Amino acid sequence: MSPLKASAAVTIGVGATAAVIVAALVQGAGDDPVSAALSLAVPSEYKSLVEQAGSLCPQVTPNVLAALLTQESDFNPKAKSTAGAEGIAQFMPAAWKSHGFDGNRDGKTDVWDPQDAIPSAAGYLCDIADDVKDVPGNKQNNMLAAYNAGSGTVRKYGGVPPYKETQNYVQAIDALANQPASGKNGATLTEAQAAAAVDTAQEMIGTPYSWGGGNASGPSTGSCCSPEGHSGTSITGFDCSGLTLYAYSRVGITLPRTAAQQYAASEPVKPGEQRPGDLVFYGNSAASIHHVGIYIGGGWILDAPRPGTKVRIDPMGAMTDLYGVARPVFHSSKEI
Fold this sequence. Notes:
two-stranded antiparallel sheet, 12 helices, elongated
């Protein structure tokens, strides 16, 4: 459930938005111009609604809308949170009063009716996107962050705010929205995926280290604090696992956030059988893994080493507690 829905952080008249969305739904009722853009699994009864409503503004695509509805309610039209959010899109009553409308034109504006709630959610997102359009950074991520934390907060911080809840919310929806249409659960990455992940990470060479920084969308401000007291709250960049998470998100593989979790979610590789794209982990045990880098061949890794450094290439033996090598595994979006 998104706190913004309880805060009424965006106040925009619903009349014009409703008219635009209803017109779009009517226009799209007889054709299927954007079905190819929807690659996520959506219940069949909501597929056309998501396709049509998810094309109202540049920041709201069918996949983003589907990912948001999955995150909010898992497409349960009867969902109700302990905070009072209602329906498939988890609107708070006050937000529904301001932003809900009669999407199917049956004379009722019903938060429990997906034919009203889904296009209302899309319109709400578009209103928010317009409200934060001048904020620097990724416009889609800013929109999602504003949906979760409020437009004022996004404007205050000049982008996704340094709140773990909001960053995880944006990351989860972004990763799900960019999940490939197909992928065998449990299958390890292909050589092509590995090469693309390495290329993505190499583009980040020179990016500052930020404790807690980095997500599926790229560099981000981090958190406080490392065991030595280093804070990443004022630094936009990556820590070690943020870099690997970002690199693999670009090829359709969602990794957990920490190095130890990434090792647990990957397939161990026998010594001497590592290949470019594999992850190299450091620590005295699986539970104490504290660092991860991406193997690029020849005994070298690409990593974000520690506070005060930048993303760079290091010898695989630069740290003395090499624990092991593992290969990322495709997991379904439910495991985000």
